[in-house]
Amino acid sequence: MSGRTAETPWRAYRRANAVLDGELLRRPDEVTCAKSRRERRADAHRVAGELYAALGNPQLAWPAIHVAGTSGKGSVAWAVAHLLRAAGLRVGLHVSPYLQVATEKIWIDGRYIDGCSFARLVDRVAPIVRRLRTPDCPASVHGLAAAAAAFEAFRRARVDVAVVEASCGGRYDVTAHLATRVAVVTSVADDHRDVLGPTLRDVAWHKAGILRRGAAAVSGVAGVGREVLRAEARALGVELREIPTRGRSIGARNRALAEAAVRAFGVEPPAGVVVPPFAGRLETVAERPRVVLDIAHNPEKARGLARSLGAVGELVLVFGALRGKNLAAMLRTLAGGCRRAVFTAPAVAGKSPVPAEELRERFGAWFDEARTAPEPRRALEAAQRLAGRRGTVLVTGSAYLVGALRGRWFPDRAVLLARSSFPE
To answer: Which domains does the chain have, with CATH numbers?
Structure first.
């Protein structure tokens, strides 16, 4: 029996993820492409198409519901997948980013892919992706490999439909080569302007780029972005189904968009379907003190989080974020409900977090008390002590921070082996 055949799911996953996060992930200082990240997006899109073609275009083997937007796209994609599955379809779901283990990005009929299958997918795509790992490649090699593995998984599983969340933007995103049946744009707001901007209209233009001639289109976009979406729809001859979101709670808005997307696909959502919780979204993981995890990482998400939390008494903030975010707008919102904060920094391969001390220097005066703990677990422990048994700790600012701390209650290995974010 070969060593590969004898691999346990955890060991197989660790080996494959080492290829993705080690061998195929370029550090920022390795990339020598002369163009800025904003300028090279069209070139990256072309490279992605060439990679998928070399793999036999797995992303065209199934009809897709493509979901983009500044906020809510992950939650809407999650709800769409569950509604379609409740209607009797075999469904794939791809979300971005994952929280704890990379298998979360490949969900098929209610469960994440197992570790051994994940490793076989990486073994399939890695030899082709390695050719792209050059300093001047305009594309995110790591992102291409992860998306290609998911698309190949859906092809092998013979899904009836796959719901695919865009990672950044839409028009030139790594996911923008699908056989799109329905395009959904949840919202357009201030995020990723360094890559998609500089203006909000530019951000909307990128997200509108997932619309396709002959496919249905659903929009929850208001404000400046609405006219951009409408113009794109007119140019393609597409009927844009606009879902009113004003005055609705985040949950109600996301559910309405999901049901509209399912109907646009030609399926009537079964009545009374309860969509299970989506990990890391206003998720309470502990009591005494209560600990709430939320991946809010832009001003729109922060405002929605503040509204959803409401009045919760003594609230201590644990905050960490990556560079490129509108930190001032996020923390201005969050400081309104938190008197004390502990700043930290999520450790993310290939990405640059804002150091905890820098956060305190820039924003500590907005709180009655501001501390730092560069390691997230230490920050959580400090916040729990500050909150006391009757208080609430809110962890937010980055999906990567939430993922790192969620493992305190749901260990990564348990998530992988159970193939669920909620292992028993």
So the answer is: 9-276 (3.40.1190.10), 283-406 (3.90.190.20)
Q: State the residue for tokens 């346990």.
A: 8
d(CA 15, CA 149): 15
Residues 6+ apart with CB under 8 A from 373: 342, 343, 344, 356, 379, 381, 382
Q: Is the pTM of this model over 0.85?
A: yes
Q: What is the pLDDT of residues 152-178, one digit of tens each?
A: 999 999 999 999 999 999 999 999 999
Query: In angstroms, what CA-CA distances link 17 with 5, 31, 212?
Result: 17, 21, 33
The end-to-end CA distance of the chain, in Å, is 32
How far apart are alpha carbons 234 and 154 in whole angstroms? 32
Q: In this predicted model, what pLDDT tens digit does every residue of 253-302 receive, in sequence order?
A: 999 999 999 999 999 999 999 999 999 999 999 999 999 999 999 999 99
Residue matched to tokens 């998720």:
283
Residue 273, classified by CB atoms within 10 Å of its CB into exposed (0-12), middle (13-18) or buried (19+), is: middle
The token duo for 420 is: 């669920």
